[in-house]
Write a structure and sequence with these properties.
The complex is a heterotrimer of chains A (284), B (289) and C (120). With 284 residues, chain A is α/β, with parallel strands linked by helices. Chain A contains 10 helices and 11 strands. Chain A has 2 domains: 2-46 and 126-280, Rossmann fold; 56-117, Alpha-Beta Plaits (2-Layer Sandwich). Chain C has 120 residues and is of the alpha/beta class. Chain C contains 4 helices and 5 strands. The chains are: A alpha/beta (284), B alpha/beta (289), C alpha/beta (120). The interface between A and B is large, with 53 and 58 residues.
């Protein structure tokens, strides 16, 4: 089962919840940190990575041999990754989307594809789970291929939890795609509600089932509950607002360390609630 | 006209609440919500939309089925999995497409055309604090920074036309393209952080970026009293690196209360956080005058 | 020799545009005759990305041998350098001042980009 943890808004507790879910489940699981611009899961897992893999994409290389300066490659590139100077072509790998269009367009075969590093994957042993983090090099903007390669390490069996990037743009969609279920984390404020609606709209468009976890639930929680009821969204869990949780989190302690009683709720959520929803929707 | 940008690296640090509070102190000014992926400033400032402009970026293929002979060359060449052949004819999956145009360029029947991609809308609106430019990115669209740039350009034009001395921008989270778009060429920036492990980590990354772009910035520590030791650690880091601290704001549930009532913290002028923000505002005055 | 200046308008009287890739116009100034030709930068301004690269290609194709601008990012700089176009950075306000400094030999040729390339 693959479950993504997402939220329209940043700072609602995606990472905290992803880590706590991964830690709560018995029998182990894999946690993917797909927030490749600001991966934070590893800050809460002790130790250095036991394995690192470079993430590469393919980019064109100009081979100099037989270019007549026709400029077809430059015209084919819709990302301005190529510049022609006479019978030479300059390549800007950081602009390239690796579509291969320039290589196909060149009648003289003077471009060939070579690997180009955009970031890395880091593997760590967490408490009862495996963490794989995607880390984009600072100065790159190619989150989707990094997320795509990160997702290639999903094990064929067992539970997988993915910490999604904030927002509803392409990197979030890339993360949640092909998951069995999406947990949306929100908080009971007008910001939380507004961004939750955007996330729900996005997930419905790509036909993914989802449920809501309300973090920092206080006396304003009806705001989110009412919307969920109206929109036919299951509220999976409410995590109460408590100052000691906020303080514990700020010190780097996990949710389970501050609130051990949540462990059972998380297990029920993963083992019972989500399968029941999927079954009711005829997706299991 | 000076432009002050509020950013945070990490989401949820209190960027938008601070922007709205500063807007009421700087009123009348011009506002730009550069967090186009999850724009929230409008929830506090209740803009009345005066003008709405569709935003196009990049291109998207359209398959002309009359010409398609089902050769599936598009499918075999697409590297993003954006062409599906599970149906009778090839079908195009918008969410996966990056707009490279290989399918169209290589189609032997010229059955695919590339059309401008509608990625969202931007708006010019009026608010009690002044004119605001904001935007909405469509779900799954690429947040390349172009929309942020459009918002800023429009906001600058408004500021010039109205003769305002301050443009206040609410920045996007992260360190990618949208942030860089929001940051280049601003006169000053405030980095809002919170005393937590993630807050500290992300503040360092955004500070590095701001320094690369030679942006004059200072740090605001929000919810400082949640973890005084971590706040001290942030302050010490700033001091070591010659980064000014514009001020600290204590944690106060009043922020949430105000938000729920659709108000800013400055509607409670005697409250402790409002006083703290007033001091921050006085502190940064000289930067933006 | 032709020199391309980044400008906010269409004459040397107008303020220089400190940006290269996203400059409103290029003014192509002919050192021999003093004539000025306006080269619109519309295509680069509308580009989703890579404005600097496009603008630099545009300038190279115009036959300019030097560029005078406020700032130049790494990608544009690379294209100009590879094409043998010299880059001069200046804080001069308008075209006249920039050309006066250029002719007096007071502008130093840039040996690297001075800003990170990106949206502005």
């Amino acid at each position: 089962m693959k479950i993504a943890v997402a939220s329209g808004k940043g700072g609602t507790g995606k990472t905290t919840l992803s880590l706590a879910l991964a830690e709560a489940i018995t029998g182990g699981c894999t946690l993917l940190d797909c927030d490749v611009e600001e991966p934070n899961c590893h800050l809460f897992v002790a130790g250095e990575p036991w394995r690192q893999l470079p993430v590469e994409v393919t980019v064109p290389e100009f081979t100099n041999d037989g270019c007549d300066g026709c400029g077809r490659c430059v015209r084919a590139c819709r990302f301005q990754a190529l510049a022609r100077l006479g019978k030479r072509v300059l390549v800007f790998p950081e602009m390239c989307h690796s579509c291969g269009g320039c290589v196909l367009a060149c009648p003289h075969k003077v471009l060939r594809e070579v690997p180009f590093g955009i970031g890395k994957l880091e593997f760590r042993h967490g408490r009862g789970f495996e963490l794989i983090s995607g880390v984009m090099d600072v100065g790159h903007a190619m989150a989707p291929p990094l997320i795509r390669q990160l997702k290639e390490h999903i094990p064929p069996e067992g539970l997988v939890i993915m910490d999604a990037p904030p927002g509803t743009a392409c990197s979030m969609v890339m993360t949640v795609r092909n998951n069995d279920f999406v947990i949306l984390v929100t908080e009971p404020t007008p910001f939380g509600l507004h961004d939750l609606k955007l996330a729900v709209e996005t997930l419905r468009e790509i036909d993914l089932p989802c449920g809501v976890v309300i973090n920092r639930a206080d006396d304003g929680v009806a705001l989110i509950r009412d919307y969920c009821q109206e929109a036919g969204l299951p509220v999976l869990l409410e995590i109460p607002y408590r100052r000691d949780i906020a303080e514990g989190y700020s010190r780097g302690g996990g949710l389970l360390a501050v609130c051990p009683d949540l462990r059972e709720s998380f297990r029920t959520l993963l083992n019972t609630q989500i399968p029941a929803i999927l079954q009711a929707e005829g997706r299991l | 006209m000076k432009e002050l940008l509020i950013i945070s690296g990490k989401g949820g640090a209190g960027k938008t609440s601070l922007t709205a509070a500063l807007a009421s102190l700087a009123s009348p000014c011009v506002l730009a919500d550069c967090d186009v992926d999850a724009a929230d400033l409008h929830l506090l400032l209740k803009p009345e939309i005066q003008q709405s402009v569709p935003f196009y970026s990049g291109v998207m293929p359209e398959i002309i089925y009359d010409r398609c002979v089902d050769c599936y060359r598009c499918y075999s060449l697409c590297r993003y999995g954006a062409i599906s052949i599970l149906t009778t004819h090839p079908r195009f999956i918008a969410g996966a497409c990056e707009g490279c145009g290989v399918c169209a360029d290589q189609c032997p029947e010229e059955a695919i055309v590339m059309r401008d991609r509608h990625c969202g809308e931007w708006y010019v609106s009026s608010t009690p604090c002044g004119t605001m430019v904001h935007a909405k990115l469509l779900p799954g669209a690429e947040n390349s920074g172009k929309l942020v740039s459009a918002v800023r350009q429009a906001a600058k034009a408004v500021a010039e036309a109205e003769g305002r001395s301050l443009l206040l921008s609410d920045g996007p989270p992260g360190i990618g393209c949208p942030v860089i778009s929001a940051m280049t060429g601003v006169d000053a920036a405030l980095i809002v952080t919170e005393p937590s492990v993630s807050g500290m980590h992300d503040m360092k990354r955004i500070a590095e970026l701001a320094r690369n772009f030679e942006v004059d910035f200072q740090v605001v520590i929000n919810k400082a009293d949640i973890n005084p030791e971590k706040s001290d650690e942030i302050a010490a880091f700033c001091q070591r690196n010659g980064i000014g601290i514009a001020g600290t704001i204590p944690y106060d549930p009043l922020f949430t209360t105000a938000l729920r009532q659709g108000r800013t913290i400055m509607d409670y002028p005697e409250s402790v956080p409002a006083q703290a923000i007033k001091r921050i505002w006085q502190h940064i005055q000289d930067k933006i005058q | 020799m032709k020199v391309a200046l980044t400008s906010r308008g269409d004459s040397l009287d107008v303020l220089l545009d400190s940006r290269f890739g996203r400059a409103a116009n290029f003014l192509l100034w002919d050192a021999a005759t003093g004539a000025v030709e306006v080269l619109a930068n519309t295509q680069s301004l509308n580009a989703a990305q890579g404005a600097g690269i496009q603008a630099a290609m545009h300038v190279v194709e115009s036959g300019a041998e030097a560029v005078i601008t406020g700032h130049c990012g790494p990608k544009a700089f690379r294209v100009l350098k590879e094409a043998g176009v010299k880059v001069y950075l200046t804080k001069a306000l308008d075209g006249h001042e920039a050309i006066r400094l250029f002719q007096a030999g007071e502008l130093k040729e840039a040996d690297a980009a001075d800003v990170e390339g990106h949206w502005a």
